[in-house]
Amino acid sequence: MNLATIIFAVLAALEHIYIMFLETVATSSAGTSKTFGIKTEKLNDNNIATLLKNQGVYNGLLAVLLIVAVVLGDMLWMRLLLGYIVLVAAYGSFTSNPQIILKQGGLAIIALICSFL
User: Fold this and answer.
1) How far apart are CA 12 and CA 5, in angstroms?
2) Which residues have CB under 8 Å from 4's CB, separation 6+?
């Protein structure tokens, strides 16, 4: 596993930890509102907050699994997790906001490319 792959995979994991923070801890903050393009009033809705917190747990676990794959040097699992991140970002781009592919998937795409060099 080359250094560039490690760096970008860890950065992708850190990005997902940040997303988890926004979704689970700072659910109704101005930063969360701006990041996800959802008005603060809607973020205060219990149903929306619960959905975001659930999504945050997913992002946190994804980050942990990616870090474990990097630490163990398991290229297969790292590539699978990075590929999953890219697929989810692509889905988000088609169904929600085209910028998601770069915002959520950009680092994962770079790490995935580096893993094949």
Assistant:
1) 10
2) 114, 117
- How high is the pLDDT of residue 51? 95
Q: Is the dihedral of CA 92, 97, 102, 103 positive or negative?
A: negative
Closest CA to 110 of 18, 14, 4, 13: 4
Q: What pLDDT score does 104 carry?
A: 94
The predicted model scores a pTM of: 0.93
CB 67, CB 77: distance < 8 Å = no
CA-CA distances (angstroms) from residue 105 to 9, 16, 42? 11, 10, 25
pLDDT tens for 39-68 read 999 999 999 999 999 999 999 999 999 999
The answer to whether 18 and 59 are in contact (CB under 8 A) is no
